[in-house]
From TrEMBL:
Pfam families: EF-hand_5 (PF13202), EF-hand_7 (PF13499), EF-hand_8 (PF13833). SUPFAM superfamilies: EF-hand. Keywords: Calcium, Endoplasmic reticulum, Golgi apparatus, Membrane, Metal-binding, Repeat, Sarcoplasmic reticulum, Secreted, Signal. Residues 68-103, 104-139, 151-186, 188-223, 265-300 form the EF-hand domain. InterPro entries: EF-hand-dom_pair, EF_Hand_1_Ca_BS, EF_hand_dom. This is Calumenin. The keyword Secreted applies. It is found in: Endoplasmic reticulum membrane; Golgi apparatus; Melanosome; Sarcoplasmic reticulum lumen. Belongs to the CREC family. Coiled coil: none annotated.
Length: 315
């Protein structure tokens, strides 16, 4: 599958991965864990390193000396201090952690950017995206691959306009990221819900009934007996998805299903980092306070963890 076909498939199935008929297809967007390490500062700060930098970036600090770690951390602090007031707040830390955890998304956008920015002006217009993605296909009203490209283009244009905050039909890198990954942006969540409902709502009545809900996850494919998880999902629909018990899910019920209000791990970690590093207890961090606790924020193979624990307990 080439890039164009991949992106068009993405526009139709943003919210779920393709599965075998007997496997569960999941449309629910959960906030990923910040690290697969155990969060126990009495043993190590590995969880905090992964949370603050992202797991891959955290590894790059392992070979550094403490002096090198402090120098690089100081440069990172300058980036975190968004308003350049000399302090890092809990909110700025939270934003940084969320960005670090979504690096794979930004890398994905970077990899695609040059493909669509045809005039190399640092922006992507709707015309550029449409021409690259659909240009050669729109002339053929009946392609052999079964895709309805005109319908896909209408859907993509609607999403592009939603991502384009200033309405000029020209996307900045952040707006283009919101277009490709709408589930990551609060202002795009309505379009995620709308597209999901359009995918599942086969009778186009504006709701998702029980059979549409199950049919999206599971195909009988000649099997008379449903797997146990399908029976469980039927119960979930009746007991939890259909909150007003009218036999179907409306937009708000669908939103509660696919975009649940999860525990905010980034907020909790930002609060933890501030608490552990805030020497004068003013609720915000200076660069000196962060660098002084560099072992909490970043890794260094040369760090004596026993010594670090002593410093950790002093605060």
């Amino acid at each position: 599958m080439d890039l164009r076909q991949f992106l068009m498939c993405l526009s139709l199935c943003t919210a779920f991965a393709l599965s075998k008929p007997t496997e569960k297809k999941d449309r629910v967007h959960h906030e990923p864990q910040l690290s697969d390490k155990v969060h126990n500062d009495a043993q190590s700060f590995d969880y905090d390193h992964d949370a603050f930098l992202g797991a891959e970036e955290a590894k790059t600090f392992d070979q550094l000396t403490p002096e090198e770690s402090k120098e690089r951390l100081g440069m990172i602090v300058d980036k975190i201090d968004a308003d350049k007031d000399g302090f890092v707040t809990e909110g700025e830390l939270k934003s940084w952690i969320k960005h670090a955890q979504k690096k794979y998304i930004y890398d994905n956008v970077e990899n695609q950017w040059q493909e669509f920015d045809m005039n190399q002006d640092g922006l992507i217009s709707w015309d550029e995206y449409r021409n690259v993605t659909y240009g050669t296909y729109l002339d053929d009203p009946d392609p052999d691959d079964g895709f309805n490209y005109k319908q896909m283009m209408v859907r993509d244009e609607r999403r592009f306009k939603m991502a384009d905050k200033d309405g000029d039909l020209i996307a900045t890198k952040e707006e283009f990221t919101a277009f490709l990954h709408p589930e990551e942006y609060d202002y795009m969540k309505d379009i995620v819900v709308q597209e999901t409902m359009e995918d599942i709502d086969k009778n186009a009545d504006g709701f998702i009934d029980l059979e549409e809900y199950i049919g999206d996850m599971y195909s009988h494919d000649g099997n008379a007996d449903e797997p146990e998880w399908v029976k469980t999902e039927r119960e979930q629909f009746v007991e939890f998805r259909d909150k007003n018990r009218d036999g179907k899910m409306d937009k708000e019920e669908t939103k509660d299903w696919i975009l649940p209000s999860d525990y905010d791990h980034a907020e909790a970690e930002a609060r933890h980092l501030v608490y552990e590093s805030d020497q004068n207890k003013d609720g915000k961090l200076t660069k000196e306070e962060i660098v002084d606790k560099y072992d909490l924020f970043v890794g260094s193979q040369a760090t004596d963890f026993g010594e670090a624990l002593v410093r950790h307990d002093e605060f």
